[in-house]
TrEMBL record:
NCBIfam families xrefs: asd_EA, PRK08664.1
SUPFAM superfamilies named among the record's database cross-references: Glyceraldehyde-3-phosphate dehydrogenase-like, C-terminal domain, NAD(P)-binding Rossmann-fold domains
Name of protein: Aspartate-semialdehyde dehydrogenase
Gene: asd
Native species: Anaerocolumna sedimenticola
Pfam families, per database record: Semialdhyde_dh (PF01118), Semialdhyde_dhC (PF02774)
Length: 362
């Protein structure tokens, strides 16, 4: 099988770098174009990134000498690729416009950005949780006037540290959820070298994050009606989002009450047995075991558990009854792998497996 040709929009930033790292030696996809801002265009990728390579693994040899293209030259980039991953750093309106421009150039867009998360006919997908939302793509194509081009987005990185746990328990009717997320600095696209103020520090505010954390799970649990996704009305979710001095890995402290209270054993069983479509299809990036549960009181820990299943699995622990809510527990997900680029790659694999992304005829 010949590999699909991939472009990375915003390839010089942290999430773009993560996409490039994850796609090295991918069995289905090959990075053939990297596009970035006009100031990076015309340079080799190695020159454009300079000393800003933030991954722990070396820059892949295959991309070092690749000449970076101008992300605004939509037709030129689209002509060389079958689809693109979008991780551009622009204003929300600029992101909306450029992603639509690529879609209208008949190039599917799998976006890491938040700009289109609430566009009614753009699916916002965690592949294990709501793959059925992809059916609105046909309605989006009608609106855009395209035959192949469309946009799919992934949700905010922080919600992956608790939403899968709640999703696996939907039969019990979660009704009220309180979650506090303790978010790594890579979620801001930074490391400690960039952001020395975060050493020995906690910042109790991340702009816009709490609204996303409260509302986006409801969109994931929404229904497709008349070619649009209508968000769910429950559970009621309230959150606080805090930046902590951790490189990677978002931790969540979660409290939840149910319509029909399960036993502790029923919860752990539901988590350990949960599988989604990516597991059934055996997609290349899919974790074999999506959710793991720790019996130890001091796990999960970001340092030791964020790379579970190559960063694509999620971890939970400290499940116990609560005096106000029914239960409380702690969750952990890798924010730049499962929560960002890795989630995007898995979404693209699902889109390919279901026939939404195909090779363009050359």
């Amino acid at each position: 099988m010949s590999k699909l040709r991939v472009g990375i929009l915003g390839g010089t930033g942290m999430v773009g770098q993560r996409f490039i790292s994850l796609l090295e030696n991918h069995p289905w996809f090959e990075v053939v174009v990297i596009a970035a801002s006009p100031r990076s265009a015309g340079k080799t990728y190695e020159e454009a990134v300079g000393d800003r390579w933030k991954m722990s693994t070396p820059m892949p040899e295959a991309v070092k000498k690749m000449i970076v293209k101008n992300v605004n030259e939509v037709e030129a980039v689209s002509s060389e690729v079958d689809f693109v991953f979008s991780a551009v750093d622009m204003t929300k309106d600029e992101i909306k416009a450029i992603e639509e421009a690529y879609a209208k150039a008949e190039t599917p867009v799998v976006s890491n950005n938040s700009a289109h998360r609430w566009t009614p006919d753009v699916p916002m997908v965690v592949p294990e949780l709501n793959p059925e939302h992809l059916e609105v793509i046909k309605d989006q194509k009608k609106r855009l006037g395209t035959s192949k081009g469309f946009i799919v987005v992934k949700p905010n990185c922080s919600i992956q540290s608790y939403t899968p746990a709640l999703h696996a328990l939907r039969e019990f009717g979660p009704k009220v959820v309180l979650a506090t997320t303790y978010q790594a600095i890579s979620g801001a696209g930074k490391n400690f070298k960039d952001w020395p103020e975060m050493i020995d520090n906690v910042i109790p505010y991340i702009g816009g994050e709490e609204e996303k954390s409260e509302q986006e799970p409801l969109r994931i649990w929404g229904k497709v009606e008349n070619g649009q996704i209508v968000k769910a009305s429950s559970p009621l979710i309230t959150t606080q989002c805090i930046r902590v001095p951790v490189t990677d890995g978002h931790t969540a402290a979660v409290f939840v009450s149910f319509e029909k209270k399960p036993t502790k054993d029923e919860i752990i069983k539901a988590w350990r047995e949960f599988k989604g479509l990516p597991q059934e299809l055996n997609l290349p990036s899919a974790p074999k075991q999506f959710i793991q549960y720790f019996e130890e009181d001091n796990r999960p820990q970001a340092k030791f558990d964020r790379d579970y299943e190559n960063g694509m699995g999620v971890s939970f622990g400290r499940l116990r009854e609560d005096t106000v809510f029914d239960y409380k527990f702690v969750g952990l997900s890798h924010n730049t792998v499962r929560g960002a680029a890795g989630g995007g790659v898995l979404t693209a694999e699902l889109l390919k497996a279901q026939g939404y992304i195909e090779a363009k005829s050359k």
